[in-house]
Amino acid sequence: MKETGDNKSGNGFGMWVGLGIVFGSAFGALFGNTSLGAGMGIVIGAIFSIILTL
User: Fold this and answer.
1) Contacts 24+ apart (CB under 8 A), 2-7
2) Mind telling me which residue stretches traverse the membrane in this protein (predicted)?
3) Could you read off the pLDDT of 1-54 as tens digits, one per residue?
4) Contacts of 5 (CB under 8 A, 6+ apart)
5) Terminus-to-terminus CA distance in the chain, angstroms?
6) CA–CA gap between residue 54 and residue 3 (Å, rounded)
7) H-helix segments, 1-54
């Protein structure tokens, strides 16, 4: 992989994981399980970042 590609995907990955944690925590709180929601958010954020950076 090129350095520019790594840098771009790295920034996107961090942003999407961060958003995933925020939304996941809020979503998890509705069900009384914030840590589970955050975990799901990380996974969802990672998937979105991978899809968008391909």
Assistant:
1) 5/53
2) 12-30, 36-53
3) 444 445 455 566 677 777 777 877 777 778 777 777 777 777 877 787 778 777
4) 53
5) 12
6) 15
7) 3-30, 34-53
